[in-house]
Specification:
Layout (H helix, E strand, L loop, with lengths): L1 H16 L3 E7 L3 E3 L2 E3 L2 E8 L2 E6 L2 E11 L8 E4 L5 E5 L5 E5 L12
Antiparallel strand pairs: 1-4, 2-3, 4-5, 5-6, 6-9, 7-8, 8-9
Length: 113
């Protein structure tokens, strides 16, 4: 009985550890994430390893991100943009977490590969 309980607890712990982390972000202007244009509004950002899914209702965009930790917590959410309203980075307020979005230029694979 104790062995079954230990296995069940270990499985539950593993499931919680692998669960995605969720945050809320407001986009104040039209934004492009991995080729998908998102309208201004409230979005849920779900992070699972190196993937971020930004979702509001039926609209969603998925992108590969690099999750970085800052020395100090960010006071507020900050979205940094590049050319053509492409989201480059999201700093998550109340955390030390920064999401750096990979460049999503079309046809970025070198020729011959």
């Amino acid at each position: 009985m104790l062995k079954k309980l230990s296995i069940g607890f270990a499985s539950l712990t593993l499931a919680v550890a692998s669960a995605a982390t969720t945050y809320r972000v407001t986009l104040f202007q039209p934004s492009v994430i991995n080729g998908t244009e998102l309208k201004p509004g409230e979005y849920k950002v779900e992070i699972n390893n190196d993937k971020a899914v930004i979702r509001s209702g039926k609209t969603s965009a998925e992108a590969t991100v690099k999750v970085e930790n800052n020395d100090q917590k960010f006071r507020t959410n900050v979205v940094r943009y590049g050319p053509e309203s492409r989201v480059q980075e999201i700093r998550l307020g109340g955390t030390k977490t920064r999401l750096v979005f990979e460049s999503s230029a079309p046809n970025s694979t070198p020729a011959g590969q």
